[in-house]
Amino acid sequence: MAKESFDKEIQFLRMLMLTSGAYNRQQFAERLGISVHTFDKTTRRLKDIAAATSSQSNAEALDLLDAVRHTYYETTDPILLFLFRAKSLKESESTRISIILEVLHEQTMTAVELMDVCSSVMPAELSMPDEKTIRSDLKYLEAVGAIRKESTTRPYRYRLHNDLLRELSEDELTDLFDFVNVMANTQVPSVQGYLLQDGLKKQLKHILPEDNSFVDSFLYKYHYHSRILDEVHLFTLLRAIRDRRRVQFLYFTPKAEKSYTAQQTNPLFERQGAGKQLKTFPLKIVYDHQYGRWYLLGMDREGIRKFRMEGMTHIEEAEAVSEEVYERKTVELMEKLKTSWLIDTGKPIKVRARFYNPSSGEQHNFIKHRVLLQGQWGEIVEEDEESFIYVISVNGIYEIKPWLRSFGSSCEVLEPRQLRHEMIEEWKELHAYYESI
Amino acid sequence: MNPFEKIFNYQLLTRLEDTGTFVVTAHERSWLKTMLEHPEANEAFTANTLLKLKQMLSTDIFMDTSEYLIEKARSQEKHVYHPLLRPLRRLISDRKGMKISFIVKDGRKNVEQRGFPYKLEYSMVKREWYLLWFHMRHRAFMSTKIDQITSFSEQPISPETAEQILEKLSLIQHARKTEVYIEVVRDYNQELSRIMYAFSCFEKAVDYDEEQDKYHVRIRLLRDEYEFLLSKIRFLGKRVRVIKGDYLKKRMLEASTKTLARYGIEAMQPEPIES
Predict the structure, then answer these.
(1) B chain contacts of residue A176, beta-carbon cutoff 8 Å
(2) Which residues of B touch A423 (CB under 8 A)?
(3) Domains in chain B: ranges and CATH
(4) Residues of A in Cβ contact (< 8 Å) with B131
(5) ipTM, interface predicted TM-score of the complex
(6) Per residue in A271-315, pLDDT tens?
(7) How far is residue B266's CA from residue B34's CA, in Å, rounded to a whole number?
(8) Whole-model pTM?
(9) What residues 43-62 of chain A have any CB closer than 8 A to a CB of chain B?
């Protein structure tokens, strides 16, 4: 079987999440570059997975859009996690593996013993496993760390590798659940943390008495839920960087109309050429907290290259590059990144801005607090009763501009002149938007 | 480490769940092992539990993301795991009441107020923890920075009272939400992805008018979230325009007038806003 790719599902969910109901089937399919038929098929498949993994009781009637709609206060379960449950599995395989795991949960067993158990409990309509199949299952389960060998001599006895769930008290499990919940929600990467959280929650629900409904005690305000979609590529790219290998991929710039294209199923898409086949030598991955987006930074003959991870599909490793080249390019890139607000590697420019303190009625100087919190490496150089001056040397003015503008009338750009001028022009236009209200 | 593994498959998961078999993979253990290295992990566990966890994970490998992963535009982090999270979370899950002392913004002290805590909330923007609780005497829902709590102690509360408060809370949360409409200015449709990302942290729905090629973002939010939404709207600048939500519109007019005044440009003065 060809390697299963989830590019379509990822683009599908991202679009669903970001445009929340804006498009009808036709429009949605068109923008993804797929047929309406494929759209329907993908919807059904994702819906099935979402329903099967949902903790809601009315999961059967679940609308896919409702499933990804973000309702703060109701849950901190990562709403897009179900995507990572999408790897397909034949029914005989999922039955067999679940039997193996269930049995190893209770006791240790050898491959031959497991084969006997499987043969006796597997439904008659499914094909009976042979010893080779069982051994390859065990090999897989051991490789992903779900089981481990109990003995060092043959025949090996296996057992479930889930001490984390079994050897902690209820109280300790609660602490662990909380820690995993907090770290998965506040740090990157988070997918593995969310998967662990899911397991811990189920285990806790299982062991706690029924009247003790386990409560999620934490909420996270202003969370970018779609960020976990790009973590799909994270480990593929990290491995390529670690192995010092180039990667090739089909790239859709975020400004392109289509964000996915079925590979070789319809030549029409290729003719339109929405995606570009590219190759680069990956060096660093950047997570941008401002928008909750991921970037890959690489280098090739044209110099530093930047790619939005959401636009990368069909990623594959290519030829290796020498350690010496890797070192040299990384140093060069890091030097340039030192003064980038996000990923701009242009020339550093000195930006000076005056921030005005809140009116004297306010005890708490929330403006200064926010500048210190979010102003990265910039410094406050002058201060009086009314205001303070913030200075930063930053690559280009475009990445820092939205941040400065978000302060509204509490921020006046002093330098450079161009930024000051652009700010004035933009505020004039904004004023015109609202003048007539 | 491929996050798409057979072992995470949903059918397999459902089967295992039915029999109470729970599996932990090397992926998850590696992640946990890495996170446990965070200095604030000490606040999350007793020393004994932490030691036990580290021993259990001794044969697992660290996830070596830090060498190649850079985080940008990140707010400074004061506390990921505040020491009060553990005891407060237990009050919440045990549905206990409390007496709480804390300092308010202007420095005044509130001493031994009776309350019912119901959630701990982390602001991803301010990077700060808050305790959400019900003030018994004032009959008000409160949000107090955990850092400002000077002491608290457990108090009994009847299950009926706790239930009533939680019911009232869910009613209020729905009733108090208002809806505002924001239009994506058509010239910036090219930047739709970026604009939608910026709003993706809100509860929202989007309408698309194909004929006019126009997008409207409908955001449902509580009044106390307006400030944050306003900062997002200013952040996006000319790309978006508030079309429904009088208060927001007035605030944007006021901001633009005042900002232009900072630059020495007199725009028409808006009428003062009543909040």
Answers:
(1) 45, 49, 53
(2) 263
(3) 21-56 (no CATH), 85-175 (2.30.30), 177-249 (3.30.70.120)
(4) none
(5) 0.92
(6) 334 678 999 999 999 999 888 889 999 998 888 999 999 888 889
(7) 55
(8) 0.91
(9) 49, 52-53
